[in-house]
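Ops channel
N.P.: pipeline sanity check, posting one input/output pair.
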């Protein structure tokens, strides 16, 4: 649960601009120091390789659309991207096929059920509800262009790398560990096939999906990837146009509705910006037109979201004026996470 403290902080609102770079850097450091000792939550253990994570790790990064980046803590520590990858693969598929095709195939509505729910598929006649839960994500991955699974995988790998502005690699240990424990995903893929929602071999698609989740990133990478979505699809560090502005709009809309699983409504209510989390402890949160926050800490709450990451992003959302629903033009005071 996202909680608030009765403590005040000067706030800015989303109708304006970010404060100066020095202030953004200072607030990033403040957010890190404020929550680095927080020990709520537990490390994910249903994937053996993830259970080895050091619970003390905490990295926090902010990337602005002007290319400025600000890092604190373990911002250069590499971890597997996991479900955060869903946002960026969805963007790549939307770029390839367009708004209407992907919406019909994958859906855009929150399930209100756990991310690996089979019931959500059955209750909806085999139609995935959205691309941010496993059924919709596997269906999205299966839509990647490519004549073979190898070609599809290479397009995902290079696409995620272009979002990050550097060549990303896969963690072989995490991939192997997940492949030994992903019977549920294999079942979901077979169910999708039975409803005519996959055009490729279901086990091949689970393999590709598992590979994309095992890609290694840092909190700095996540902030750059998110800032690319915040800046109309242009990577603010490399200057490369990765996807269109329309694709960014569609992706951020889906993240706002479903990016934080069954806690998405609470997240939007308390923090007010699109975000996506992963079970390794990563979170990317995006403020359109301004920039993005990348956070990493392995301690998770019951919904699978990083506890420290959530609290730090909540603080920065209020302190930097990122909430999409705040419309007062004046700086104001209020509760912070």
């Amino acid at each position: 649960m996202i909680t608030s403290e009765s403590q005040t902080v000067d706030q800015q609102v989303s109708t304006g601009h970010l404060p100066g770079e020095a202030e953004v850097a200072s607030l990033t450091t403040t957010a890190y120091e404020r929550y680095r000792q927080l020990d709520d939550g537990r490390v994910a253990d249903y994937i053996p390789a993830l259970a080895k994570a050091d619970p003390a790790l905490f990295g926090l990064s902010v990337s602005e659309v002007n290319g400025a980046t600000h890092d604190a803590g373990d911002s250069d520590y590499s971890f597997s991207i996991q479900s955060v990858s869903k946002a960026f693969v969805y963007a790549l598929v939307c770029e390839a096929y367009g708004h209407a095709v992907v919406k019909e195939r994958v859906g855009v509505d929150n399930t209100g059920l756990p991310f690996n729910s089979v019931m959500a598929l059955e209750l909806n006649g085999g139609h995935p509800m959205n691309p941010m839960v496993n059924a919709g994500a596997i269906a999205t991955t299966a839509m990647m262009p490519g004549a073979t699974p190898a070609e599809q995988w290479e397009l995902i790998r290079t696409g995620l790398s272009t979002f990050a502005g550097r060549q990303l690699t896969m963690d072989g240990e995490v991939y192997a560990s997940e492949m030994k424990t992903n019977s549920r995903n294999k079942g979901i893929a077979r169910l999708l096939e039975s409803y005519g929602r996959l055009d490729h071999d279901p086990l091949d698609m689970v393999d590709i999906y598992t590979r994309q989740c095992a890609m290694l990133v840092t909190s700095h990478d996540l902030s750059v990837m998110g800032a690319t979505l915040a800046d109309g699809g242009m990577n603010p560090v490399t200057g490369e146009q990765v996807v269109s502005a329309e694709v960014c709009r569609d992706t951020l809309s889906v993240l706002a509705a479903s990016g934080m699983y069954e806690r998405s409504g609470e997240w939007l209510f308390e923090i007010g910006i699109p975000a996506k989390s992963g079970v390794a402890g990563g979170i990317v949160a995006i403020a359109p037109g301004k920039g993005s926050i990348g956070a990493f800490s392995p301690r998770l709450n019951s919904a699978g979201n990083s506890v420290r990451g959530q609290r730090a992003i909540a603080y920065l959302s209020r302190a930097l004026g990122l909430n999409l629903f705040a419309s007062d033009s004046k700086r104001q005071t209020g509760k912070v996470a």
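N.P.: looks fine end to end. The longest strand covers residues 59-64.
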